[in-house]
Amino acid sequence: MINKKTEQTVVSNSKFDVTVTRVHEILTENENEQVISFDVNVGDVTIYGMIYRSGISQNNKPYELISFPARKGTDGKYYNHVWFPISRELQATIIEQISNKLTDQ
Q1: Within a domain: 33
Q2: Between residues 29 and 94, the one the model is more confident about
Q3: With contact defined as beta carbons under 8 Å apart, do 63 and 55 qualify?
């Protein structure tokens, strides 16, 4: 039997209710980088082990990114095993929630 992959369309107008439930700052050797592990509730689904990174790139430009939990495949590449679209506005909201949780600790 041949398994034909089908493309799934994500509705761009959908809005997710995202709540950060736990944060844990990870110590790094690079003083210009901050790494934080966090868990989120997205609607009725909980995602564990997301990562927020911020710092200064090699080109001296600031960066912020959110990555999803991933696993290493047999080809040596890493693949997300969960994903949802994050707009710039949602990213800013998540980062704000992370910051608030860190100050509450």
Answers
A1: yes
A2: 94
A3: yes
Q: Environment class of residue 40 by beta-carbon count within 10 Å: exposed (0-12), middle (13-18) or buried (19+)?
A: buried
Ranges assigned E (strand) in 1-105: 18-26, 33-42, 45-56, 62-67, 70-72, 78-80
DSSP 74: T
Prediction pTM value: 0.80
Domain span at 91: 18-104
Q: Is residue 1 part of a domain?
A: no
Total domains present in the chain: 1
Largest CA distance in the chain: 54
